[in-house]
Amino acid sequence: MAHFEEVCKQSDLHPKPAGLVLQYGTAGFRTSANKLDHIMFRMGLLATLRSKKTKATIGVMVTASHNPEEDNGVKLIDPMGEMLTSSWEDYATQLANTEQNELLKTLKDIIEKEAIDMSQEANVYVGKDTRRSSASLSQAVLDGVKALGGHCKDYGLVTTPQLHYMVCCQNTQGKYGEATVEGYYHKLSQAFSQLAKNASNRTDDQKHLSVDGANGIGAIKVREMESHLRKHMQLSVFNDGSRGKLNHQCGADFVKVQQKLPTGIKINPGDRCCSFDGDADRIVYYYTDSQGDFHLLDGDKIATLISTFLKELLNEAGLDLKIAVVQTAYANGSSTHYLENTMKVIVKCTKTGVKHLHHAAQEFDIGVYFEANGHGTVLFSDGAEEKIQQLASDTNTNDERKKAAFLLQNTINIINQTVGDAISDMLLIEAILAIKGMSVQHWDAIYSDLPNRQLKVKVSDRRVIDTTDAERRAVTPAGLQEAIDDLVKKYEKARSFVRPSGTEDVVRVYAEADTQESADALAHEVSLAVYGLAGGVGDEPKPLH
Ligand code: NG1
Ligand code: ZN
């Protein structure tokens, strides 16, 4: 019982502001850093219980990803490196919102409901991003783990996907790789050099990539990795955190939503560039042309490039494996059309939020999933991995099939299957472009995006909007979907939907149409409908032009 006394004592050092209510959403807890100390302590407690329950190592990552520097957040990582299972998300919310004097009771309720053996050992891995608040907040997580008698390993500054990788390595007894940052660099860079061997002679220009590190952890980590890649890649890292502010006018979210270059990057027309987000689990590519026009290659273009590559390799290897691409409603209509009609792969649409995509991708032999914002990865089923390994080691296979199997094998190794990973995705994309001898312009030309626009509307309670059909249609408030349908009819090749954000107190509006003017006008008109029918607050949305 000594642990419970310690929990009470320590909890007094991490008190909950009375009345504060927060919810464990699609991205864990995320809000202003100054509201999170008690949440961190309590997530340390919860991670310890989860570890006892699963008899495995659990991860806790302190980050608010692409949010402003002033915010922070926390996410728990389950044993195979995946997101925390939904039933425990409810415990996280309960524990977070319990007032100070009820904490022990709530904790004991969870222990009882889950029949947790408190004598079981617990292990928790903790990581943090570069935010100023992350140091003390991750200390609060460690305090929580220790209060319940758990063991912790503090990885310090790591990207979100690196911590997911560590957890998976640990719980697979090293089968997935070595649970160190060095082990991560080693695994990925080995696979990259194996793949890069298959590229015909590339010039230094072709090996060059400009990286916008969003002034965050990704910049630090890609620099650390650079020495492992030197022969095959030349990186110029911008927004490395030495001067600019985290995610401010830079990073993957800024580039995707604003559809323009980040500040702080110096490039020439035609140069291949990419941006990470603040915790390096998202990546988007882009370039400017000789007219100075900006071209974005987002998660949809990345999914197309990767799935085309994999499909070609499967054909060459003569392997009959089912490959699918999983997207959300934010996927550009042109990408879905191309994937379904030209590439003829299965396309699935799920609700926004990585865990939905991840689960859907697990249903196939090979599931490529990407959110348009650049978060994504590829999942290989155990059966698919086995078939690929068998073929690669089969002495009777002819050279062409063997080469394809070898490429597939190294593709598996370069991918972080636990979660979207900017560094791993970057290496895979660079390898594919090198092997195919493809420029960023050729890649971009595979299909043309429909012009689109994303807007936000502030309403008094965003929960009044309920959606269906993978968030593509609004069920409530009454009349909203009809209004959207009428507006969409006014434009060519148009589509629009609205949904309450899971990470910000806003309603998101998405529109696409045949021209940018039409997409902008439609997004504005739909914003007005949301404002009028869903309880808009503040000024009425203004037209973009
Ligand atoms: P919300 O705020 O629920 O739209 C955003 C992203 C998601 C996902 C989460 C978690 C968009 C439109 N939404 O969610 O795709 O990445 O953040 O970080 O990009
Ligand atoms: Zn992120």
Automatic annotation (TrEMBL):
Keyword Electron transport: no
Domain (Phosphoacetylglucosamine mutase AMG1): residue spans on this chain: 179-284, 298-437
Pfam families: AMG1_II, AMG1_III, PGM_PMM_I, PGM_PMM_IV
Functional note: Catalyzes the conversion of GlcNAc-6-P into GlcNAc-1-P during the synthesis of uridine diphosphate/UDP-GlcNAc, a sugar nucleotide critical to multiple glycosylation pathways including protein N- and O-glycosylation.
Binding-site residues, Mg(2+): S65, D277, D279, D281
Cofactor: Mg(2+)
Membership in a protein family: Belongs to the phosphohexose mutase family.
Molecular function in Gene Ontology: magnesium ion binding; phosphoacetylglucosamine mutase activity
Organism: Poecilia reticulata (Guppy)
Ranges in coiled-coil conformation: none
Name of the protein: Phosphoacetylglucosamine mutase
Comment on bound cofactor: Binds 1 Mg(2+) ion per subunit.
Keywords: Acetylation, Carbohydrate metabolism, Isomerase, Magnesium, Metal-binding, Phosphoprotein
Active site: S65 (phosphoserine intermediate)
Binding site for substrate: E371, A372, N373, R499, P500, S501, G502, T503, R508
Pathways per UniProt: Nucleotide-sugar biosynthesis; UDP-N-acetyl-alpha-D-glucosamine biosynthesis; N-acetyl-alpha-D-glucosamine 1-phosphate from alpha-D-glucosamine 6-phosphate (route I): step 2/2
